[in-house]
Amino acid sequence: MADRADFSGMTCLVTGATSGHGEAVAGLLARRGADMVLLGRSAEKCERVRRDILAATGKGPDVLLCDLSSLEDTKRAVAEFLSWDRPLHILINNAGQVNRYFQLTGDGIEETFAVNYLAMFHITLLLLGRIIESAPARIVNVASDAHVIADLDLDDPDGRGRRYSMMGAYARSKLAVLHFTMELARRLEGTGVTVNAVDPGPVASGIAKKEGLLPRVADAIIQLTFPRPERAARTAVHLASSPELAGATGEYWRFMKLKEPRLSADPGFGSRLWELSARMAGVDGAIAIKKN
């Protein structure tokens, strides 16, 4: 499967680009000539990745600082990008986290659901007009096989009405990502924009780095036994770049192979989740999609 070798003139935005899988994806695309935009929360970490890419390619990426747990800050960051008057050919929605304990964002949303899913929904819809204008374009959403254990209740989407578990919250957010991916792909038919989801598999990243003995032990095991981010990033880069997948949309991939996700049997579930997410994010869920 030969992926596109030259991304010169193409703008690619990667969220969560300052560590692990996201950093590896950004680096691989930058080495193929893409004009990269790194979105991350830490100015220090973004600058480190920017310098690394500059040293490797001779071209430093642009940086968008954004706290994806904040709807207001996400909106501000998107407005900043749009003000640059640049196209957007590839959006990699990679940012994610796991929380050992239940936490609410400033917007009153369980934080894992807010960062892993709702921020993805929010930023994608706010950028959608620019992405469609830039078509052909691709959106790649990072999901997880953990979705198979999830229960997503549209009356309680972020799980505040149930006993909190770290894995349950993570799995629920990733199930929402998959439903969003399939629904967005359906709505974007005929626009020249494709949308697919990827599970990079276990990654030796810093996602488990939290305070406390248990997270530190878990992170040490992850670093020793899981594949390096550069290897895990191959599938996302393949979805973003392969000529063979130019028209592929509404698909779920893991370890370079197409896989069938375990989704609700209710054909209207994705549409109802979309409308609920739009209300939670405070955006127009009926955004006009102009088709080519």
Any overview of this molecule?
There is one protein chain. The chain is an alpha/beta fold and 292 residues long. It has a single domain (11-200, 232-281), classed as Rossmann fold (3-Layer(aba) Sandwich), CATH 3.40.50.720. Helix content is 42%, strand content 13%. The chain is built from nine helices and eight strands. Strands 3-2-1-4-5-6-7-8 form an eight-stranded mixed β-sheet, sandwiched between helices. α1 links the parallel β1 (11-15) and β2. α4 (111-133) packs parallel to α5 (166-187). The longest helix is centred in the middle third of the chain and has 23 residues, at 111-133. The chain is globular, with a radius of gyration of 18 Å. The protein starts with 10 loop residues before the first strand and ends in an 11-residue tail after the last helix. 45% of the residues are buried. The mean pLDDT is 90.
Determine the structural class based on helices, strands and strand pairing. alpha/beta
Order of helices and strands: EHEHEHEHEHEHHHEEH
- Radius of gyration (CA) equals 18 Å
> How are strands sequenced across the largest beta sheet?
3-2-1-4-5-6-7-8
- End-to-end separation in angstroms reads 28 Å
Total count of domains: 1
Unreliable parts: none
CATH superfamily: NAD(P)-binding Rossmann-like Domain
Q: Main sheet?
A: 8 strands, mixed
Helicity level, as a percent range?
Answer: 40-55%
Name of the level-1 CATH class: Alpha Beta
Q: Mind telling me which CATH architecture this is?
A: 3-Layer(aba) Sandwich
Q: What is the third-level CATH name, the topology?
A: Rossmann fold
Q: How much strand?
A: 5-15%
Instruction: Compute the number of helices.
Output: 9
- Any idea what the shape is? globular
Average pLDDT rating: 90
